[in-house]
Specification:
With 482 residues, the protein is α+β, with helices and mostly antiparallel strands. Strands 3-4-2-6-7 form a five-stranded antiparallel sheet. Helix 2 packs across helix 3 and helix 6 packs across helix 7. The two termini are 18 Å apart.
């Protein structure tokens, strides 16, 4: 019942001057705002009012259009790539070496295609070794006996050493990223790539948000997209073929495929490997690493040992291997590697946000100030007028609901409403009562022992003949109450 009065009181306290109609509110805003265009609409004549109205509407549309472009550009999460070249002391890379023959093994880590492989400076249990200076004297020198005479013809058609340089604590996928070394290999430059994370680039820092279980986690290595893709394939292999392929790590509780327990695994594996849908699924789930270090290698080859020095070199190597004074090695089974930094140059490719929040706010404010001559305070004024608009709408809705209830109450009244004369008569003449029950003719209108009835509805209190709007009357009474 008193909701509208409370709303009006709240409107009084929120603002002064806008009035209680939409027209009064709009006029007040145009007259008091700090934006230049709306003021001219109020102050100028009819023709200039129309001109300034059209100009204000046009420039407001231009501001909204420009704002839309800047917001859409910001939400596109574009990046800018910067390239920097520097010079500093760097950690020596991890070096993985595998024999081309899977039955002539070195040590450390098992790789299905090459058998046991040796990883130097992996950094798992010890600190990574730094490189003090560039040049061959400060690198890694290896003389490897590949035992080519023991190669199995049908298993290994290539003789040599498979070599890969990679970052510490990363799993070496040497079959995909390694190179063959025959005489000498040297490292020229380390190339470090840094990407921005989400939402700028679809990359991951440690793979925690990638929905693929990393089966290479038992090696305690860092995340890589190669490990993710292989883990995804192994997961599909287990789900479709009920066993895992021997080329990839196996999760706990599962078995590797074999012909005895899984006679149809080869056919299932072939279908899965040729499936385009499987590859697209894994590519969609796996992400690139945000921080990736790549080493570019240049290979220089020369005959080693030379004809003049091969006798004494082979004698020394044969003595070390077989404790024999006879030469038991040949040129075909020896590989010498020199791995070193040519220079301590590094190149960093780094992604940064092309459009940040500062860029967005400065452009939005610049466009608003250029086309409308406004500022942040003008936006606050506009927000205030929106609140007043909503408040007046609520008041009108409450008044409309009240009037509808009154109309329903009047419609439910059976007889015609009483006149003013009848109301006055009922108020002043206590004997004027409707005959609702029959009375005895001998009985008086009211016995002496009976209390007088309560008067009926009093007449209206006409304290003035001056007509005033309802809103003004209510606001005056509320002002007195306040």
């Amino acid at each position: 019942m008193h909701v509208k009065k409370y709303l009006l009181k709240g409107l009084h306290r929120l603002q002064k001057g806008p009035g209680y109609t939409y027209k009064e509110l709009l006029v007040w805003y145009c007259d008091n705002t700090n934006t230049h265009g709306p003021k001219r609409i109020i102050c100028e004549g009819p023709k200039k009012k129309a001109m300034w109205f059209l100009l204000t509407l046009l420039f407001a549309a231009l501001v909204c259009w420009q704002w839309g472009i800047f917001i859409r550009t910001y939400l596109s999460w574009e990046v800018s790539v910067s390239l920097s070249v520097g010079f500093k002391t760097m950690d020596f890379p991890a070096v993985t070496i595998c024999n081309a023959s899977p039955f002539k093994n070195f040590t450390s880590i098992f790789y299905p295609h090459y058998g046991n492989c040796y990883i130097f400076n992996w950094g798992m249990t010890e600190k990574a070794l730094p490189s003090a200076n560039p040049g061959t004297e400060f690198g890694l020198k290896l003389i490897l006996d590949i035992g080519q005479e023991d190669y199995v013809p049908f298993l290994a058609s290539t003789a040599g050493v498979r070599l890969m340089l990679h970052e510490q604590r990363s799993y070496p996928f040497i079959r995909d990223e390694g190179i063959y070394a025959m005489s000498g290999t040297e490292t020229s430059i380390g190339d470090k790539l840094q990407r921005m994370g989400e939402p700028y680039s679809p990359c991951t820092v440690n793979g925690s948000e990638v929905p693929v279980q990393n089966f290479y986690s038992d090696y305690n290595t860092t995340y890589s997209i190669q490990a993710c893709l292989r883990s995804c394939f192994q997961d599909h292999m287990i789900r479709n073929c009920n066993c895992g392929h021997y080329l990839y790590p196996l999760p706990r509780g599962e078995k590797y495929c074999n012909n005895r327990d899984f006679p149809d695994w080869a056919h299932c594996y072939s279908d899965l490997q040729m499936s385009v849908a499987q590859r697209e699924t894994c590519i969609g789930m796996c992400k690139e690493s945000c921080n990736d270090t790549q080493y570019k290698m240049t290979i220089s080859m020369a005959d080693w040992p030379s004809e003049a020095s091969e006798d004494w070199i082979f004698h020394v190597l044969s003595q070390e291997r077989d404790q024999s004074t006879n030469i038991t090695l040949s040129r075909k089974g020896i590989v010498k590697l020199n791995i070193y930094f040519q220079e301590f140059n590094y190149r960093t490719i780094e992604e940064s946000a092309a459009n940040n929040i500062v860029w967005l706010l400065s452009n939005l404010g610049g466009q608003f100030g250029f086309w409308m001559g406004g500022s942040v305070l003008c936006l606050i004024e506009f927000g205030e007028i929106i609140i007043d608009f909503v408040w007046i709408t609520i008041i009108k809705l409450v008044a409309l609901a009240k009037s509808l209830r009154q109309r329903r109450a009047q419609a439910s009244y059976a007889g015609p409403p009483p006149t003013v004369a009848e109301l006055v008569e009922a108020h002043t003449n206590f004997g004027f009562q409707p005959d609702t029950a029959p009375r005895s003719p001998n009985t008086g209108p009211y016995p002496s022992e009976q209390a007088l009835p309560i008067p009926g509805t009093p007449p209206p209190n006409y304290d003035s003949l001056r007509l005033q709007p309802l809103d003004v009357i209510e606001s005056d009474s509320e002002g007195d109450a306040i």
